[in-house]
Write a structure and sequence with these properties.
Length: 259
């Protein structure tokens, strides 16, 4: 995998001594005194500018791709940060002994059977609606009322989410060619496996929003049971994406862990 413009896995601000993050949390509004260090922002195949993987698309194959990218660029010991699906990916890489410190924010993969079916139904309905509304999405995200309806499952305060951010995120999900394949894998694929502390290449921190309505807070218990050495950090008054409403707190956790 390569850098931007070369047709492979894209990255920006390459710096081998800091952190690799999934591109969904690359842009954070924070105090200049507490800004993130330079990072490698991963553009996952099929989720941005990078073409989809050939063959099977799953958490496992995406982890293979990222691990190969890190190895090719001599970044194998770099710290990793991910959110949502990116958090699941970070935990899978950490389980394999890839990377250094791992920070996973509201990861998927720790549902009960009933919660998994809830995820399947609500995600399916949501992505169909988001795709249907793309021609008028600017109008829907500009209005606090309709923005709230669209983001209720993802945000504790959806009316407060920046309209441009909401539109960009929803457009990204609607247009990602690998979204459906990964969603299918999350529902029907193998559940996330854990790992004993001794097998990990670095510390693991799992962050969770207290008001997450997609990956419910009670799932944090399952996550810490599978990763018994992980430290759990809670984000108060936060939904599925802590960096939407607690950007400074998110940065503080990342820097305290990886700094």
């Amino acid at each position: 995998m390569n850098r931007p413009g070369s047709g492979g896995l894209a990255s920006t601000h390459l710096h081998p001594h800091h952190a690799v993050v999934d591109s969904s949390i690359h842009c954070l509004t924070v105090s200049p005194r507490r800004a993130l260090p330079q990072v490698v922002a991963i553009d996952l195949p099929g989720f941005g500018q990078t073409p989809p993987l050939g063959g099977e698309v799953s958490i496992a194959t995406l982890a293979d791709a990222v691990a190969g990218f890190l190895d090719d660029h001599k970044l194998s010991g770099i710290d990793m940060v991910g959110s949502s699906m990116g958090a699941r990916l970070v935990l899978e890489l950490a389980r394999r002994g890839v990377g250094g410190t791992a920070v996973a924010l509201d990861p998927g993969g720790f549902w009960s059977p009933a919660e998994l079916q809830f995820f399947r139904v609500t995600l399916g309905l949501s992505i169909r609606l988001v795709r249907l509304l793309q021609p008028v999405m600017r109008l829907f995200t500009a209005n606090p009322v309709t923005r709230t309806l669209l983001l209720t499952q993802l945000s504790a305060r959806p009316w407060a989410v920046d309209a441009d951010l909401a539109r960009q995120e929803l457009r990204s999900w609607a247009q990602s060619p690998s979204f459906d394949a990964v969603a299918h894998d999350l529902v029907h694929g193998a559940p996330q496996q854990g790992a004993p502390t001794a097998s990990m290449s670095g510390p693991v921190v799992i962050g969770w929003g207290r008001k997450d309505r997609l990956t419910f807070p009670r799932q944090a218990r399952c996550a810490t049971q599978l990763f018994p050495g992980a430290r759990l950090e809670w984000f108060e008054d936060s939904g599925h994406f802590p960096h939407w409403h607690r950007p400074q707190g998110t940065v503080d956790v990342i820097l305290a862990t990886t700094g």
